[in-house]
């Protein structure tokens, strides 16, 4: 349609290192089936000492700027729940590393894993107001829980960058949205901690309640019927959650919940999350990338999105895949970002996990570990110094 607005380009990045779940299981004695089948995770991305949400976000966004230029980008929205500063937006560092024009507005958004969807929806609103402008959305996160806690197996890290524009080449985002908010403490991270706190069982219960409630609102707002959707991109704290969520949605709507039907709807969206782990704000859009990057042709097909952010806020909405979308994918770059990761042994993983940056405001170089394009090079006078190589 004339007013189609949505995702014009989509690019994913992850970390230097990876920890296989087999290694974690070897340390803690967990039967590996619990990880591979029970939660549906194979491995998790682990950031190097000189990687954070800025370096991953810049790595995801750089190919988009290289392809489209920055002339029409008037806004950068950075979504994260792993923020590095209470005041300054991580997006300003990315804006600087990518050499974006000074005539840009930049802001950071937060509501747990829902922040990426908030950024996407706000970007659509801006493009609706001025159809010539493009908005760069960056969703970047590090999922970190305490060592030897139940959450440890659901860690991970990644960034997704999306260029939001009129007449998008990949996915047209539709009205309406189904919305849901409830004040709960299922997962949170106080300012003095770098690892999240979580009530695992409660978080799954609230997630499923949010799926049901957001869908109910979507239906009341006049949305599509469930049968029309080809696939569903759920927020994936671990890939098994997408199956749980879809089973719950089918149940809610009074459908059969046979496993092959659920598999057809969600399996293709899990390929990247299964080996990267939880990437919070980026997770549902890594699901979209995995879906689009698979072989069959989705042109014209509606895809459902369910974004969930603990605390909690959820949104269900639809997108239609654009004709000719396959020419604009980054399938080989995504594969490369996953395959190039270096495998950690348990001791090296533990050392990275226990490491924290000095807080004395002194002059500290950060050990060079990443071979990626962007790195955190030093701390100096309470400031972070980044480098593009
Ligand atoms: N073979 C196959 N399956 C096995 C198995 C084996 N040997 N052993 C156990 N399992 C299965 C269990 O049956 C269970 O499956 P079901 O839930 O389908 O029954 C699954 O493996 C997990 O087992 P447990 O529930 O016993 O695992 P746990 O107590 O270690 O907790 C967890 C799992 C709650 C996900 C925990 O890892 C956690 O707290 N993670 C962080 C919180 C989280 O990710 N919550 C998700 C919803 S909140 C959200 O989505 C926002 C966000 O990003 C955080």
TrEMBL record:
Annotated Hydroxymethylglutaryl-coenzyme A synthase C-terminal domain residues: 178-252, 265-326
Keyword list, A-Z: Transferase
TM region positions: none
Alphabetized CDD domains for the sequence: init_cond_enzymes
The keyword Transferase is annotated on this UniProt entry: yes
InterPro entries in UniProt: HMG_CoA_synt_C_dom, HMG_CoA_synth_N, HMG_CoA_synthase_prok, Thiolase-like
Superkingdom of this protein's organism: Bacteria
Keyword Metal-binding tagged: no
Domain Hydroxymethylglutaryl-coenzyme A synthase N-terminal: 5-167
UniProt cross-references to SUPFAM superfamilies, sorted A to Z: Thiolase-like (SSF53901)
Family: Belongs to the thiolase-like superfamily. HMG-CoA synthase family.
Matching NCBIfam families: HMG-CoA-S_prok (TIGR01835)
Name this polypeptide is given: Hydroxymethylglutaryl-CoA synthase
Species, as recorded: Streptomyces canarius
């Amino acid at each position: 349609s004339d007013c189609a607005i949505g995702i014009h380009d989509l690019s994913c990045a992850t970390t230097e290192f990876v920890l296989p779940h087999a290694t974690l299981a070897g340390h803690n004695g967990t039967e590996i089936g619990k990880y591979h089948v029970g939660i549906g995770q194979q491995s998790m991305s682990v950031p190097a000492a000189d990687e954070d949400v800025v370096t991953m976000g810049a790595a995801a966004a750089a190919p988009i700027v290289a392809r489209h230029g920055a002339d029409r980008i008037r806004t950068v929205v950075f979504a994260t729940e792993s923020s590095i500063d209470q005041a300054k937006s991580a997006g300003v560092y990315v804006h600087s590393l990518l050499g974006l024009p000074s005539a840009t507005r930049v802001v950071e958004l937060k509501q747990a894993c829902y922040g990426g969807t908030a950024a996407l929806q706000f970007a659509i609103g801006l493009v609706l107001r001025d159809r010539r402008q493009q908005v760069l959305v960056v969703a970047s996160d590090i999922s970190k829980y305490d060592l030897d806690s139940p959450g440890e197996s659901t860690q991970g890290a990644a960034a997704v960058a999306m260029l939001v524009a009129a007449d998008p080449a990949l996915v047209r985002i539709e009205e309406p949205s189904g919305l849901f908010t409830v004040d709960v403490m299922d997962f949170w991270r106080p300012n003095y901690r770098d690892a999240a706190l979580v009530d695992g069982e409660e978080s799954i219960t609230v997630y499923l309640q949010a799926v049901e409630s957001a869908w109910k609102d979507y239906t009341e707002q006049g949305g599509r019927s469930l049968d029309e959707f080809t696939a569903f991109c759920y927020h994936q704290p671990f890939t098994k959650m997408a199956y749980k969520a879809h089973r719950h949605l089918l149940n809610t709507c009074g459908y059969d919940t046979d496993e092959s039907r659920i598999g057809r709807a969600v399996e293709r969206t899990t390929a990247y999350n299964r080996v990267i782990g939880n990437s919070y704000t980026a997770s549902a859009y890594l699901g979209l990338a995995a879906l689009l990057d698979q072989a069959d042709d989705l042109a014209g097909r509606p895809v459902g999105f369910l974004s969930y952010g603990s605390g909690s806020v959820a949104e269900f909405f639809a997108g239609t895949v654009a004709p000719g979308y396959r020419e604009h994918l980054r399938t080989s770059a995504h594969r490369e970002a996953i395959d190039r990761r270096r495998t950690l042994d348990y001791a090296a993983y533990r050392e990275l996990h226990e490491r924290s940056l000095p807080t004395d405001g002194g002059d500290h170089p950060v050990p060079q570990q990443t071979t990626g394009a962007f790195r955190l090079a030093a701390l100096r006078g309470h400031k972070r110094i980044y480098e593009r190589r």
